[in-house]
Amino acid sequence: MKKTAAWILAVTLVLSLTACGGKNASDTSSQGAGSSQSTEDVSMQENNKPDNGSLIVAADGLESVGEATEMLRGGTNQNEAVLLPLNTKLTGKTTQDGGLWYAFTTGTAENATYRITTVNKTLDTSDLCLSIYNAYGEKMHSYTLDANQAGRASTLNLELPASTTYYIYIWAEKGDIISYSLIIRDPEEQKSGYSTAGSVSESVGAVAGQEILAGTNQDEGGMIPLETEVSGKVSDGRGQWYAFTTNSVENATYEVTTVNKTPGTGDFCLRVYNMYGETMHRYTLNANQSGEAATESMQLSPKTTYYIYVWADKKDTIQYTLKIHGPEEQSAAGSVTVEEEPLVFETPFELNSTQVMFKAESDAFLDEAAAKEALKPVAEVILAHPDHPILLAGTTATDGDQQARVDLSNRRAAAVKNLLVSAFGVPENQLTTIGLGFEADPFVRGQDRDANGKFVESEGAKNRRVIVMDANDPIAQELLGA
User: Fold this and answer.
1) What is the pTM of this model?
2) Considering Cα of 56, then 466, then 374, then 310, what sign does the dihedral take?
3) If exposure means fewest CB atoms within 10 Å of the residue's CB, which of 39, 130, 180, 396 is most exposed?
4) Structure confidence by residue, pLDDT tens digits, 22-41
């Protein structure tokens, strides 16, 4: 079975990696370090390799059209590292059999800063550890990046040359099983098109009046609408995560206010972070048992999601309230904007081929059980909003005939619809589908063709997707020709 040329390395090295140290969410800081010619789809079949518990990337862009190719899994050594798309959040799981290898190729911008961010999503585990290497096995940063079980994002910042492949080694400090997310961001690359979200929690808008549940990690923080008071309880020494999104006002100040409602306890503590796990204020906000409100004021960027971590200083049980106050948005004429009915999917949600995979040139799922698992949180959101019509829009990689790709992407969107209906009971008439192929795709796309027109499989994987959005979203209305 043929391998992608980008994975062939000059040297095979045996690396000795030291364990990483542990910290809690309130004091851990972020740290600063192939392609193949393809058609849109090539057969993918399960092989006899063990499931390494890795991130899974659809392999329908590998060369050799006439034969089946294996599903890609995390490599067990640097030579077999799996190439990942940039700017796409992926989820995975460590294995007890050793660490896993992934790779990414930098874009065309010279000396751009790449930010590699991971989140440990499993409670009561050791640290998740990560290191970056070049093709010669040389480590690209001084310290191992560690993400602990408190769920805070950890980030490496690396200035890297253009068009170069680097290798990610990820492992659990004590060999336990850890679910995690991983994303390699290229902030300096200019993207055109509408943005999409890589997780349901990031996509779903915060709606006043709906139940808000705290999460166990930064990726799954409960979304709090501005000016909405939330009540909660911490106990058993476990912290909790929330999130909020700022509005469009530039250079605005936001106040986060909390009250400790339980007399005779230690302090109730709070910190606010950005998506990289960087704290947005100097000191921890503490609310003591006297019941007096404590407030943190911060100047924050517009239309940006921030994350709140709360915990009890002495691991006792504390009832609390939490509220975020922000500025009022103004219309162009200077009057207060009239509030419209909020969207369910505030940002369109992207199900790409790293999450839901299809057989080659087909609308049949490669693994229906895995597809159901990926669609479960989507179904839960849709079922909770039965009065909101939803559009499922399919797109493809930049390859082949556009009309054929429109047909394929429409059939795949319909397959997602059918699974939502049959497996979860979503009303069929609540869902509409459309196929966009690649030419009509208005969303930010992976750069799956390089300057010479050669197909870049890792970026093509990002473009094989179904976008989930409200049918009354202006983007959806544009696509439907309303």
Assistant:
1) 0.75
2) positive
3) 39
4) 334 544 444 444 322 233 33
